[in-house]
Amino acid sequence: MQLRYDPIKKRWVVFAPERGERGDYLILQKEVEDDPEYCPFCPGHESYTGRSLHEDTGIIDGKKVWLTRVIPNKFPLLKVEETDGIKQYGPYAYSSRLGAHEVIIDSRTHGLKIFDYQMDDFIRLFNAVIVRISDLRKDVRLKYITMIKNCGKVAGATLSHPHSQIVAFPFLPNEVKNIWKNLYEYYYVNNRCLVCDILNFELEKKERIIVKNDFFVAYSPYAPRHSFEVHVVPVIHTNDFIGLKDYEKVKLAEVMIDVLKRYNVALDGASLNINLINTACNIDIPELEFSKYKERFFHWYIELIPRINRIGGIEKGTGVYVNPFLPEKCTEILSGINII
Ligand SMILES: [Zn+2]
Ligand SMILES: [Zn+2]
């Protein structure tokens, strides 16, 4: 039993490895695939989803077809058309649902699992994310725009056709604002980026590294809330995903493919969330001197969170998570898998 502190999120996590030995502590659920005949994202069903906001095309059987397309979400959480400001209601506040919510259809192939994505699938996905975030940033009302991916129904996916989401908020979500705040405070004291320092420490210790190349490192964080959580981080300090160069996209895809193949074997294709933790836009955060220092203290990364833990009352009631697997054990399991 050990308590560990996460300096990026500034929170404690309880590690209880004896629970990991009890198989019933983990959810490893097989997915049932949707019928492609009724899938709105399948080729030939474009009329269900309407116009594309972005398309990446290719030639199949001599015909030009889309390979990846971005569409407005049919059931958006947030919409760009909404214009009302924030209103007070007694001690509360409310506003119209200003924002944006788009779907990236990653591939034409119905049922393609994230574990089987090839290099091209990831490159087209990264390009779609960059194009859409860049475009949405022109709307100065939007402050945080990111990509999330729910892989599998336990992770929140409603359709089994491979897809991702772009979500744009008119406010700063607390979870991300806390990360910026913690990184800013570390920078203020040390004059260095915390993520860079963590990366250097991990590369020196070699206890939690899953895979690395010249541009990206995938490692098990020291105090993750979730078993088998992995962070993929650019080696060179950089604060904005949309600045990714073409050769970096290839290197990022290499690392993602490697980790996901390991997950597929170790966790038997369990559901997972993939979250981009990126910089804010169209805003200053004066207490963090954001416009002045964001490029120095913030370092983007991607979180991969397998949805295999049961979340109980301790987590919901106190925000303190119990993790039945130490990250060193997860690293050992993932690294030990032969993926060739
Ligand atoms: Zn489909
Ligand atoms: Zn850094």
UniProtKB/TrEMBL annotation:
GO terms for biological process: galactose metabolic process. Binds 1 zinc ion per subunit. Pfam families: GalP_UDP_transf (PF01087). InterPro entries: ADP-glucose_phosphorylase, GalP_UDPtransf1, GalP_Utransf_N, HIT-like_sf. The active site is at residue 163. The keyword ATP-binding does not apply. Gene3D superfamilies: HIT-like. Its cofactor is Zn(2+). It comes from the Bacteria. It is an enzyme of class 2 (transferase). The keyword Transcription regulation does not apply. Its EC number is 2.7.7.12. This is UDP-glucose--hexose-1-phosphateuridylyltransfera se. GO terms for molecular function: UDP-glucose:hexose-1-phosphate uridylyltransferase activity; zinc ion binding. Residues 3-173 form the Galactose-1-phosphate uridyl transferase N-terminal domain. Keywords: Carbohydrate metabolism, Metal-binding, Nucleotidyltransferase, Transferase, Zinc. Zn(2+) binds at residues 39, 42, 110, 161.
